[in-house]
Write a structure and sequence with these properties.
Two copies of one chain form a homodimer. The first copy, chain A, has 600 residues and is α/β, with parallel strands linked by helices. The first copy, chain A, is built from 16 helices and 27 strands. In chain A, 53% of the residues are buried.
């Protein structure tokens, strides 16, 4: 029993119980703390820095010599010899947890559109024959000064029995003066915030009574079966009016599944969700609503609907509370949709007074530039390469995906998600690999792979490839390679993003170096290594410290809209203010794009 | 060719072409004029009186001697000898046509809640990237000074393709500032008015662009399978929350069928119906909405909802236009529902300054008393006997049903619907038979049938019965009889109605003779013979001319609400003004009821 030690990781508030002699890295893994460890724990990469605040641990090793003066240790080198408390600097944590720790999430005053009220009715009797609804209306005015104007029929159907089962005291939920749900007294209504990405859908479950986050989950967008990118799906939907409904239903079933999963985890039920806020790019927005997206597929790329929109969840085929409501944040124009509005909302870019570039990187990348009171936005098709698609050994960010790559003294170091045996490369890994290959001159500026550029490069001509992991290494089931075509895919993707940034800067009459802040959002945007992205020229060459990675800001924005009517009004204002820049017809775009294809 | 004569019937505007020598009664049947002919054309009953305005006809017969002085003839006696024009007094026409002819239907200024607008949008282009909805909104303000606030999602889904297929010019339908339908330009939107009776459902198809009636149709209420009267259905629905939905769906499928049938007759489609107005008693109202009606089944008989209510047709499972809306008129209290509001609206009883009793007779009978600015209403369970149910040879009012009975000089005369061979007795026929049996003292005041009261009475004790039609007479397939139990059913029904009238008079401090007008509505109320009803004491003994029969006034009221927003406001006002009198707990009711069981 004396062999077990307790290790607390701050500020994450996670705890592990490990055997005496275990390393802090092992303890961190057990505690679910995503410590970086690019070298896999060999003490060579220096990415697992921590600060031991209290407790008995082993003395510094040779590998830590330079760090000790700063009070830092390498978690892979430190052996736990008793209970310990460890402080983890944000830079040492994997991006997903970093976003959480760094507290980029805005806090807002709780003022949800869907509000719950407990109300008590006087029971009916022979002297008061008024209808249930009439007496409910009166009680609400008297007890909460709230006027009910409308009653969702599905919610209304539940009212009379619930009233009588609960001795005339119930919880009702009201949105825009409409009764949308009834429940036993004190039942806290739930909300669902959903970011519908072209490839992935992320959802967040929230307690609307106190704003507490109850869980987050993600699934692949089920519409992927109908086409990988927005254009493919628009084309599919064009083939007949029924097809748009087919895409809509596919998404709805995915959302229902997500909601069910989140509720099960929280010990709740989908039927308790009274409102959902959905965001997505304009195409995802239209397909989520079952609106034909045909007009988005052809110049002049016009949306059917750009205003914010409220409708019944059942009209989308969603199985939430019977009277549940859905709020769609407004779109901007072209493909710059509600997800980007949500991202701007969550990061407060619309309010900043420093020159800021905001990017939400995904299969479609939206870019905004805030400068001098103006807010310019554009959208570019960066493709699914960063999601691991169209990459020879690409995969999505799942256990065993190589997420970090570094060449150190001729060695190739890499880190897999959850430290699992390597099975493929995800977006951030391929980005690192390209950056490192270029750094050691194994790639030319045009992306051509040099057969003699690195000992691990093999093959010739179009078949040339770089062996990142040979079969068997760390139990890799086969060779994991980066092909010449993989490099080209990354070039196309990063060039689209860089060209978008440059066109916006040009529209605003600014030089890149004037940008004081670059906010990078989206799952991939959060996991990518900014140095690598800078190395391949995806971003303008700015000092590293001007970059900040903020996680799924679109999802956070959806959550804010769920919790705050003020945020919904801000979203409207953002959508109104943005000056949309259409890249496909912009005269500078092609030139910038061609230039950006090169590797610096 | 010279043998054919043209006969015009005024004021109905109907025409027949008959052979010279045919009777006017034959001509009337060919022209679809529902002339009364209780004796079947024998010249004995005197019910087929007409006025020959022009043309050559046969001279008066012996049977017409007394009428000639008044300028009248009997249609069954007059032979057409050349083209003729005939005026038909209202009293000579069957009730259904009479209601039509007498013009009881209020005419209102056309101002429907669902209004169509043709609108032309400027096509989108690279200089105008605004969303379709944004440009539609603007065009509506500019072209019609109308502000759109909401967009039904199902209608919205049809907008973009329809806009592009029709060169940016479309017809849109707006209700309460919400877009509820889109259509090609100039397509006139349709409306559906529905009176949901406990036994029968009547529907009217209307062109909302010009107010024109496009057809009427009726079906049995499919909920009959779950119980004949309201209490049976409430009890069925109580057994579980799902059951109310089952009743709702049964009705919805019946309404869909009616709508389809009406549209097919008019060469239109259900998908063109953009709004429906539904009325019914409170129980039918609740079951139509899928609201649990449990609270209506027990004292204090409280409704869930009494206000007027708007919802989506799809939320009732109706397959009308995808974004179609349904308006439910307000209920009053107890079982006095939206159908009675509609009846008061259609007959203007709420505005009259003469003391008026209004009755809507059905399985449930609603009664109102307008006097001195007050409007008192009650409801009584008159049962389905008047619909032909619970009557030995009862049937609903269909071809072959005996609808009129008169004893003339010892002979028994009767009239069947459409003159078809007799197969049973409908409500008005049984009412006549009871009145005649009492007149000739074959019935005692307590309803007991006297074995020696009439040669056609046979059997004894509980088995005593009156043979109205012996098998074989006019091709009757079997004996058609009136049993002692039939008489009792009629006594129960008429007593409930009379007691209701007396309680209302008492509440208002009035004597029966002060009533200046009695308005009788409902299918049975329109077909019944007022003299017979007076003879059995269903109504207070008032002069015949104070009675007026107005057809399906509830259905007419629903139609008015479809065509006029002003009428909807009037309906609200009626529902607010009515003083509801609960009969089941009224101390006078039982006494009045017991008294009214007697036959005068």
């Amino acid at each position: 029993m004396t062999d077990k030690c307790t290790v607390d990781f701050e500020p994450l508030g996670r705890r592990a119980r490990v055997a005496s002699g275990a390393t802090l890295l092992e303890a961190a893994r057990q505690a679910g703390v995503g410590l970086n460890a690019v070298c896999g724990g060999a003490g060579t990469c220096g990415t697992c820095r921590v600060r031991v605040v209290a407790g008995k641990v082993s003395p510094p090793t040779e590998a830590e010599r330079e760090l000790v003066a700063e009070g830092l240790r390498l978690a892979c080198q430190v052996c736990v010899l008793g209970d310990a408390r460890v402080d983890v600097p944000p830079d040492s944590i994997t991006a997903a947890q970093r976003a959480q720790v760094e507290g980029r999430e805005r806090t807002v005053e709780l003022d949800p559109a869907a509000r719950g009220f407990d109300v008590t009715l006087a029971p009916s009797n022979l002297d008061d024959l008024r209808a249930d609804v009439t007496r409910l209306r009166e009680a609400l005015v008297q007890q909460h000064d709230v006027t009910l104007e409308r009653f969702d029929p599905a919610a209304l159907r539940q009212l009379p029995l619930l009233l009588r089962e609960n001795e005339w005291r119930i919880r009702i939920v009201i949105k825009n003066n409409e009764l949308i749900a009834v429940a036993p007294p004190d039942a806290p209504p739930l909300g669902l915030a959903v970011d519908i990405g072209t490839t992935k859908v992320a959802a967040y479950l929230v307690d609307l009574a106190n704003g507490e986050a109850l869980g987050a989950a993600g699934v692949m967008n089920p519409q992927i079966a109908y086409g990988e990118d927005v254009m493919a799906r628009i084309t599919y939907g064009m083939d007949g009016r029924e097809r748009a409904q087919e895409l809509q239903r596919a998404l709805a079933s995915g959302l229902d599944e997500l909601a069910g999963e989140l509720c099960a985890q929280a010990g709740r039920e989908s039927g308790e969700i009274v409102e959902a806020v959905l965001v997505g790019n304009t195409c995802m927005h239209h397909l989520a609503l079952g609106l034909p997206a045909d007009s988005l597929g052809l110049a002049p790329y016009v949306a059917v609907l750009s205003d914010s929109y409220d409708l019944k969840a059942r009209d989308l085929g969603l199985s939430l509370s019977p009277g549940a409501s859905v709020h769609m944040l407004p779109n901007i124009a072209g493909f710059v949709g509600a997800d980007h509005v949500a991202m701007l909302l969550a990061t407060s870019i619309h309010e900043t007074d420093v020159i800021t570039v905001g990017l939400d990187i995904g299969t479609n990348t939206e870019i905004s530039l805030a400068a001098g009171g103006r807010l310019l936005s554009c959208s570019c098709a960066s493709g699914p390469a960063f999601e691991g698609a169209h990459i020879h050994d690409g995969m999505r960010a799942a256990p065993g995906a190589i997420e970090r790559v570094r060449f150190v003294d001729g060695r190739i170091e890499y880190q897999t998600i959850d430290g699992a045996p390597p099975v493929g490369i995800c977006g951030s890994g391929i980005l690192d690999a390209v950056a490192e290959l270029r750094r050691v001159s194994a790639l030319r500026a045009n992306g051509a792979m040099q057969a003699d550029g690195h000992p691990r490069v093999r093959g010739e001509g179009r078949g040339v490839e770089f062996v990142l992991v040979p079969a068997g290494e760390r139990d890799a089931p086969r060779d994991i390679v980066v092909t010449r075509k993989d490099v080209n895919e990354i070039q196309l993707a990063k060039a689209a993003i860089r060209a978008g940034v440059e066109v916006l800067l040009d529209e605003a009459g600014l030089e890149a170096e004037q940008v004081q802040q670059v906010v990078v959002a989206g799952a991939f945007g959060t996991y990518l290594d900014v140095d690598s992205a800078l190395a391949i020229g995806m971003f303008p060459p700015l000092p590293r410290e001007r970059f900040v990675q903020v996680g799924n800001a679109a999802g956070m924005g959806a959550k804010l809209a769920l919790l705050s009517r003020h945020c919904r009004r801000q979203a409207e204002e953002i959508a109104r203010r943005v000056e949309y820049v259409e890249l496909t017809t912009n005269p500078r775009f092609v030139g910038e794009y061609t230039k950006a294809l090169m590797l610096p």
